[in-house]
Amino acid sequence: MKTLTIKFIAACAGTTLATAIFSSAFATETIKATVNGMVCAFCAQGIEKRLSGMPATKAVLVDLKKKIVVVEAKDGQTLDGKAISHEIKEAGYDVTKLETVAQTVAEIKAQMKVKGK
User: Fold this and answer.
1) Residue 3 and residue 47: Cα distance in Å, rounded?
2) What is the model's pTM?
């Protein structure tokens, strides 16, 4: 019985470790910026177009009501927060906060839909 229990615990620990390594290796990098000055769909389109053109960008979300811009990296890529901030500023807007979040653009959109109901 003890041998079986030890083998089971070892197997669980190995599975947990493998899952942690796999998850961190394929973790999505997403940068969320709080932006002032966006007031219309044209503003959102301009920012989205600029950021979508960056080589490491997989997806972009612009929410005018919450004043946020979210940029998700392509798999295996990293985002440059300074470059993202620069692009937003070049488009004519102020970045007041920049942070890395552990969610994809799709997850953030889904969360916003649930909160909006």
Assistant:
1) 60
2) 0.75
User: Whole-angstrom Cα distance, residue 18 to residue 85?
Assistant: 35
pLDDT digits (tens, 9 = 90+) for 55-109: 999 999 999 999 999 999 999 999 999 999 999 999 999 999 999 999 999 999 9
Burial of 31 (0-12, 13-18, 19+ CB in 10 A): buried
Q: What type of residue sits at position 2? A: K
Cα-based distances in Å from 106 to 28, 43, 58: 11, 21, 11
Lookup: tokens for 48: 């989205």
